[in-house]
Specification:
The chain contains 15 helices and 24 strands. The chain is α/β, with parallel strands linked by helices and 509 residues long. The strands form 6 sheets. The chain has an 8-stranded mixed beta sheet. The chain has a 4-stranded parallel beta sheet with strand order 4-3-5-6, sandwiched between helices.
């Protein structure tokens, strides 16, 4: 049997090639037969350029139907899909290209000139373009080829995708996800969330992130159902689409913004059967407010780049606000203490997971991979959690000061390194502070060593030149010296307490 994820999808597509798969922003639709043909043409083009099994294809493009087809084309020829956040700067892309050594890079036409020198540094790397409207050299070149019908043979352990995740040292790590990892996870979610043939998904998430790509999109491919593909999240458009949809997947920010609209009520959500939230903690207050307004309890789940989804509140049963539910079928979870002991229910420690969904390791980082796994195969997530007597997992914090803002991971070290290199900065500390919309906002505290404070706006503007927008601090505060413990370590907990109300309503009054 061919374990290629695309072969598995194709076996579950509707028999009718005219069955609609994607409804687009302009009101047009793309049928399953169109997806097969478009993906096949792109696959044929990539293969003609010498891209084969195991080669990487780096993708930094806007969300579109062609982005979906490019992903499927990579799977079809056995290439490794490497999606990159559209907010990444040229210097960040240069690192990913140097590390992954892709055979092809697909970018927005507006980025072609900036990325051309990066692509040229490696012989044999092809630079292609793809715009949101389908223009660019990728689609133009694909039209010159007949659709490829062959699907590359793949084993379950063959790598299907690499997703980069930030590291505490500032160096991003490429998490290698296999065809088997992704197939096992989509099957578990399909069962756990009770997908039906007539389900229609509102897809307003990005396609470079685990949530939008490997949860939302993969599920609809597996289900052979229809989705409303929105290029970006717009609360009013989402509410308008609920009358012809059944499922919405989003980050907590989606739900806080939906609640701000007076149009959101029980009537608007009457046809919907499931609202899913993930990628960042959902406030219990948001959970309660949404239930009161719509009559629907948001289903919160927990996953990460390295594992896709691990746990989920039940479809049928108690969806406990503040928890991420029990483990999915086939997934095991446990909590360890600082001394390495397995902790009893209710105790807080570092969460570890094991299952067919857990990734194969970090790209070209064998030592880092080995350090993140226990001898019995459990992956050390770095998240602090507790597990109840009946198996519900509660995430209570994050190890290593990870900041999750709007569903995106930000490791403070990367931002601090950029700040510390600037004039007038003796040292900096970056923390996440509660934010009513983003969940957490990135905030920098800069030590001036007793000198006069600098210009916060200038620091923020300078950071925008080198960092993706979501990594740039929303606020910069100045102090003479950063608080430290007796060992000399900066006490970030004190900074969080001191500036905790930075984004409270009264702070802007």
């Amino acid at each position: 049997m061919n374990a290629n994820l695309y072969a598995l999808y194709r076996s579950r597509f509707p028999a009718d090639p005219h069955a609609p798969f994607m409804e687009l922003d302009d009101g047009s639709s793309v049928a399953f037969g169109d997806v097969i043909a478009r993906s096949g043409r792109i696959a044929a083009l990539l293969r003609a350029l010498g891209v084969g099994k195991g080669d990487r294809v780096a993708v930094q493009v806007e969300k579109s139907a062609h982005t979906v087809c490019l992903y499927l084309a990579c799977l079809q020829i056995g290439a490794i899909h490497l999606p990159l956040n559209t907010a990444y700067t040229v210097s960040e892309i240069a690192y990913f290209v140097g590390d992954a050594e892709p055979k092809a890079i697909v970018c927005d036409p507006a980025s072609e000139a900036a990325l051309a020198p990066i692509a040229a540094q490696r012989a044999g790397t092809h630079l292609l373009t793809l715009a949101a409207d389908g223009s660019g050299s990728l689609v133009a070149g694909a039209r010159e080829h007949a659709p490829l019908e062959e699907i590359a043979q793949a084993d379950a352990d063959d790598i299907a995708a690499i997703l980069y995740t930030s590291g505490t040292t500032g160096r991003s790590k490429g998490a290698m996800l296999s065809h088997g990892n992704l197939a096992s996870n989509v099957q578990a979610l399909h069962e756990a969330w009770g997908f039906r043939p007539d389900d229609v998904l509102i897809h307003a998430l990005p396609l470079f992130h685990t949530h939008g790509l490997f949860v939302a999109l993969n599920l609809m491919l597996w289900n052979g159902g229809r989705m409303i593909l929105m290029q970006r999240f717009d609360p009013e458009r989402v509410i308008g689409a609920m009358s012809r949809a059944t499922i919405l997947m989003g980050v907590p920010t989606f739900y806080t913004r939906l609640l701000q609209s007076p149009r959101l009520d029980r009537a608007a959500a009457a046809r919907m059967r499931l609202f899913v939230s993930g990628s960042a903690p959902l406030l219990a207050e948001t959970h309660r407010a949404f239930a009161q307004r719509t009559g629907h309890a948001i289903l919160e789940r927990y996953g990460m780049t390295e594992t896709c989804m691990n746990t989920s509140n039940p479809l049928d049963g108690e969806r406990r606000a503040g928890t991420v539910g029990p483990p999915l079928p086939g997934v095991e979870v446990r909590v360890r203490g600082k001394d390495g002991e397995i902790l009893a229910p209710g105790a807080i420690g570092v969460l570890e997971v094991r299952g067919p969904n857990v990734f194969k390791g970090y790209w070209r980082m064998p030592e880092k991979t080995a350090s993140e796994f226990r001898e019995d195969g459990f992956f050390i997530t770095g998240d602090l959690a507790s597990i109840s007597d009946d198996g519900y997992v509660t995430i209570v914090g994050r190890d290593k000061d990870l900041v999750i803002t709007g569903g995106y991971n930000v490791y403070p070290k990367e931002v601090e390194s950029a700040l510390d290199a600037m004039d007038g900065v003796v040292e900096s500390a970056v923390v996440g502070l509660p934010h009513p919309d983003l969940g957490e906002a990135v905030v920098a505290v800069v030590s001036t060593g007793g000198a006069a404070p600098g210009d916060a706006a200038a620091y923020i503007a300078a950071l925008r030149e080198t960092l993706a927008a979501y990594k740039v601090p929303k606020r910069v505060f100045f102090v003479d010296d950063l608080p430290r413990n007796t060992m000399g370590k900066v006490q970030k907990n004190m900074l969080r307490e001191r500036f905790a109300d930075a984004f409270a309503p009264s702070a802007d009054a």
